[in-house]
Amino acid sequence: MITNNMSVNGITCGKCVKLIENTLMSVNLSLNDIVINKDTGFIQFSSLKTVSPQLLNSLFKEKGISKYSFSHTPKKNNKNIFTFIKRLYPLFLIFGYLLLTVIIISFISKDFSSLTLMSNYMGGFFIVFSFFKFLNLPGFVDAFQTYDPIAKNWKNYGYFYAFFELFAGLAYLVSPRSLTLNLLVICLLSFTSIGVWKAVQSKNTIQCACLGTVFNLPMTYVTIFENIVMILMALMMVLLNIGF
User: Fold this and answer.
1) What are the backbone dihedrals phi and psi of residue 69, each rounded to the nearest 5 degrees, phi first?
2) 77-129: per-residue pLDDT in tens?
3) Same domain membership, residue 221 and residue 100
4) Residue at which a domain ends, from 72, 91, 121
5) Under the phi-then-psi rule, with left for phi > 0, alpha for psi from -120 to 50, and beta for the rest, what region is 154?
6) Of 72, 99, 125, which one is at a domain's C-terminal end?
7) In terms of CB atoms within 10 Å, which end of the chain has fewer, N or C?
8) Are residues 12 and 43 in the same domain?
9) Which helix (H) or strand (E) holds 5?
């Protein structure tokens, strides 16, 4: 099967998404795993052979649905490093604020132990990132489904993941040594990292849903690095829990 990625213009609501999905399923192209993000206009589906935007435009026109137009997903311009950094600026800003907050808390409490530093950072990380997801939860779920391996097969997992981040953030501030919590973080972030890695390797422009859909962040290796750091800290928490 071939994975097709493209953009579609003209989507204004959930009914548009449903109409496009039903139309794609009705055409004789054997399309599967159709995922549409109504906020970004990104569409992904699998097929036996590559499907061009021109073919879909023609088929939709034949069915009297000319409101929507398909086109190739714009490619990333890796030559402009300043544009790249500017797009990731919200992510770097949040990391900076989290680190500053963790340092201030440690100075006030006079506790610079690795457990305190990691638990405060991880707690703040999950709470802040879940906040942005809840600003547009359906939009996050749609975007998350385009790359997370579990969400691709179970859409409601996106809702679960957003709530999990919120409760994980609170739990790290209350009970950072929880073995169950840290093992869940390691497992879920590992699955997400695999999806992010495949998305980056595909060289297609896919929206990163780590901050929901408030910011149109590109999927990059920064997302993988961010997940790996969290996985390593959760692993250290597990080792501390068992006495290493």
Assistant:
1) -130, 130
2) 444 566 666 767 888 888 899 999 999 999 999 988 888 899 999 999 999 99
3) yes
4) 72
5) beta
6) 72
7) C
8) yes
9) strand 2-9
